[in-house]
């Protein structure tokens, strides 16, 4: 009788874990894409792979170097990069050959998971067929069973990508309604707005200066000596979701970059 083969568990040391798991969210124009893609500008997180699903890469046209940008045109497009990264980025993988990539990459960004969820709804409800459901066609109404299937799919996607041996950065829109009583967070449906962010170590809420009170911006600029473009909040305040499980980033960061964050988390290079 053959003995059962069990997969050995992996030991994790929280003090030496080299990979960050970060989620940035905010309203349109809050510098989500620009902030996430600063990963391409730091040697600790670059080269950087950007899986674009509804983000705005045009906003980083001035970055040098640029991340490698792959357009996620359909839900299944998330499978190949995950499989490749999970296997250790082999140069013989079809994903490398398809896009003429030059691995290894140190970070991966999914911009944005709000659109990934919309793609999941479209797939679940059968209107991802663009030949059948054009822009002038009414799409089906969402039913209860669709929400459950999408929730489990989003949790599966997030948990798998966050488990990769690479820096992982997720980007999402901000919800225009509370995700739970009195709390505003990422624009994901139902329990997904709570469970998906639970997989990351850092949740940063980005706010453009134009949406902040003038007096607060002035005080920040006087205290820092830096002109404020956007601010990333890492502490839950004012009914907005945020967290810093490293305990290193402070309550907020002006004009945030991955370089500033990594310096605070791991120390300057």
What does this structure look like?
The protein is of the alpha/beta class and 269 residues long. The protein has a domain at 21-132 and 139-206: Rossmann fold (3-Layer(aba) Sandwich). The protein is 28% helix and 16% strand. The protein has helices at 32-36, 79-86, 94-99, 113-125, 144-162, 192-195, 214-224, 258-266, and strands at residues 21-26, 48-52, 68-71, 107-111, 167-173, 202-208, 230-233, 243-244, 252-254. Strands 1, 2, 3, 4, 5, 6, 7, 8 and 9 form a 9-stranded mixed sheet that branches. α4 crosses α5. The radius of gyration is 19 Å and the shape is globular. The termini are far apart. The mean pLDDT is 93.
Write the layout of secondary structure elements.
Elements: E1 21-26, H1 32-36, E2 48-52, E3 68-71, H2 79-86, H3 94-99, E4 107-111, H4 113-125, H5 144-162, E5 167-173, H6 192-195, E6 202-208, H7 214-224, E7 230-233, E8 243-244, E9 252-254, H8 258-266
Parallel strand pairs: 1-5, 1-6, 2-3, 2-4, 4-5
Antiparallel strand pairs: 6-7, 6-8, 7-9
Helix pairs in contact: 4-5
DSSP, total strands? 9
Helical content stands at 25-40%
Shape: globular
Number of helices: 8
Mean of pLDDT: 93
Give the CATH class of the domain at 21-132 and 139-206. Answer: Alpha Beta
Strand content: 15-25%
Order of secondary-structure elements: EHEEHHEHHEHEHEEEH
How is the CATH topology of the domain at 21-132 and 139-206 named?
A: Rossmann fold
Assigned CATH architecture of the domain at 21-132 and 139-206:
3-Layer(aba) Sandwich
Q: Which sheet architecture does the biggest sheet show?
A: 9 strands, mixed
- State the separation between the terminal residues, measured CA to CA: 55 Å
Rg calculated over all Cα atoms: 19 Å
Q: Name the structural class.
A: alpha/beta
In the predicted model, the low-confidence regions spanning at least 5 consecutive residues are none
């Amino acid at each position: 009788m053959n003995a059962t083969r069990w997969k050995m568990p992996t030991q994790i040391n929280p003090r030496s874990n080299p990979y960050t798991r970060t989620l940035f969210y905010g309203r349109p124009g809050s510098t989500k894409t620009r902030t996430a893609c600063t990963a391409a500008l730091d040697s600790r997180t670059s080269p950087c792979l950007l899986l674009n699903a509804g983000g705005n890469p045009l906003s980083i046209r001035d970055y040098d170097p640029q991340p490698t940008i792959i357009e996620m045109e359909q839900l299944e497009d998330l499978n190949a990069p995950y499989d490749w990264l999970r296997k250790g980025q082999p140069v013989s993988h079809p994903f490398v050959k398809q896009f003429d990539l030059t691995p290894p990459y140190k970070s991966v960004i999914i911009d944005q998971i709000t659109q990934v969820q919309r793609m999941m709804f479209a797939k679940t409800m059968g209107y991802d067929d663009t030949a059948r459901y054009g822009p002038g066609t009414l799409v089906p109404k969402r039913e209860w069973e669709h929400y459950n299937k999408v929730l489990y799919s989003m949790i599966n996607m997030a948990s798998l990508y966050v488990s990769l041996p690479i820096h992982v950065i997720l980007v999402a829109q901000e919800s225009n309604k509370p995700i739970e009583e009195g709390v505003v967070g990422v624009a994901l449906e139902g329990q997904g707005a709570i469970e998906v962010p639970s997989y990351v170590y850092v949740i940063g809420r980005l706010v453009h200066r134009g949406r902040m009170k003038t007096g607060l911006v002035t005080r920040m600029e006087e205290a820092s000596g830096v002109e404020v473009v956007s601010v990333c909040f890492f502490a839950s305040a004012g009914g907005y979701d945020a967290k810093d499980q490293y305990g290193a980033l402070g309550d907020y960061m002006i004009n945030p970059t991955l370089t500033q964050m990594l310096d605070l988390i791991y120390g300057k290079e």
